[in-house]
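Tokens as discussed.
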């Protein structure tokens, strides 16, 4: 099993990712991990935190020289804005954020104890761990990328920029839709034999766990529910050169909970960021008086960054499913198995 957990608060000392279950002998390119971390910080509409931080990784364990040694990898990303103990108390929860439910659940009188961990800053750990998984997948020519399909309902770059500028002016925020595509995924990752082995279920879980994601679909997704079967299912062909193949990919590369050899395509709907410059109505958790929600430094839109995080989550799931199918221990053995069985 490939296991990933993160630790760290938004304004704590650092963000940590622990990744366990990688084989021995994988080359780790730290510069590539840093490039991925930088991609997460980009995009039109990001907030001031992105100017403060230039995320870089320090690998604390799991490698000797530049190669993995099968032991757990710990990745650390330092926070420049390490100010958790100086920041003021917050008692006005933001609608749409974890603030109120988190404070009630854990009995906090200061919402800061919630938002420090609920912050999307945690996704830096995912991108760090995801980058390591990407390095693994690349050894087998599997490439995971993403693109923004729309922001605030707009589709062209020009209109998206204008919409974000308007939202910034009116102290509002925007969500959008991003797509993650994995090319080169071999047939048979995941399985139909048990509910929690299904690759689509595992990908949906991973993508839904990204803060602000409210919907996930694969291939034509929800649109399939409105079509007749003959307009949905991807017909099967065979050629000596390609083997089995399809001329369409409505299934998004997933059939019966397994990869089918076509590109794996997922789309995610992201709600607008919950911190508004023009705050919505809320209730002070101490006084119980009607107030305006707290205003925290935040982004106007972060759909492009969410796409990069989506790539990381998809890479984590695909790497795990790949290891299940082709072996866990040594890169050399896995490569042999892969060659023999694809
Ligand atoms: C983010 C870090 C946060 C926010 C934002 C994304 O840092 P700070 O609170 O210091 O500005 O900018 O977080 C949220 C949108 C959120 O809702 O928590 C990051 O690193 O991506």
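Sequence:
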């Amino acid at each position: 099993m490939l296991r990933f957990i993160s630790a760290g608060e938004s304004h704590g000392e650092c963000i940590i990712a622990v990744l366990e279950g990688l084989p021995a002998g994988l080359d780790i390119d730290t510069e590539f991990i840093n490039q991925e971390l930088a991609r997460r910080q980009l995009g039109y509409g990001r907030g001031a935190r992105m100017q403060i931080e230039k995320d870089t990784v320090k690998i604390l364990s799991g490698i000797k020289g530049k190669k993995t040694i099968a032991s757990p990898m710990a990745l650390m990303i330092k926070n420049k804005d390490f100010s958790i103990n100086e920041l003021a108390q917050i008692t006005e929860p933001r609608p749409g954020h974890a603030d109120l439910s988190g404070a009630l659940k854990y009995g906090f009188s200061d919402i800061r104890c919630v938002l420090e961990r609920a912050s999307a800053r945690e996704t830096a750990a995912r991108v760090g761990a995801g980058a390591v998984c990407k390095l693994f997948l690349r050894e087998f020519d599997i490439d995971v990328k993403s693109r923004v399909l729309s922001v605030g309902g707009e589709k062209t770059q020009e209109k998206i920029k204008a919409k974000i500028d308007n939202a910034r002016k009116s102290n509002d925020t925007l969500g959008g839709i991003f797509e993650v595509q994995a090319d080169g995924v071999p047939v048979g990752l995941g399985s139909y034999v048990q509910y929690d082995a299904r690759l689509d279920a595992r990908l949906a879980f991973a993508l839904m766990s990204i803060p602000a994601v409210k919907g996930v679909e694969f291939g034509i997704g929800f649109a399939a529910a409105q079509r007749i079967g003959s307009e949905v299912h991807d017909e099967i062909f065979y050629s000596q050169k390609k083997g089995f193949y399809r001329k369409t990919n409505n299934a998004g590369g997933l059939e019966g909970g397994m990869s089918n050899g076509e590109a794996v395509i997922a789309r995610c709907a992201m709600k607008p960021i919950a911190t508004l410059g023009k705050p919505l109505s809320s209730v002070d958790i101490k006084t119980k008086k009607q107030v305006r929600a707290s205003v925290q430094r935040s982004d106007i839109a972060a759909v492009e960054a969410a796409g990069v995080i989506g790539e990381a989550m998809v890479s984590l799931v695909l790497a795990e499913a790949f290891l299940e199918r082709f072996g866990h221990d040594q890169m050399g053995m896995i490569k042999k198995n892969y060659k023999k069985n694809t």
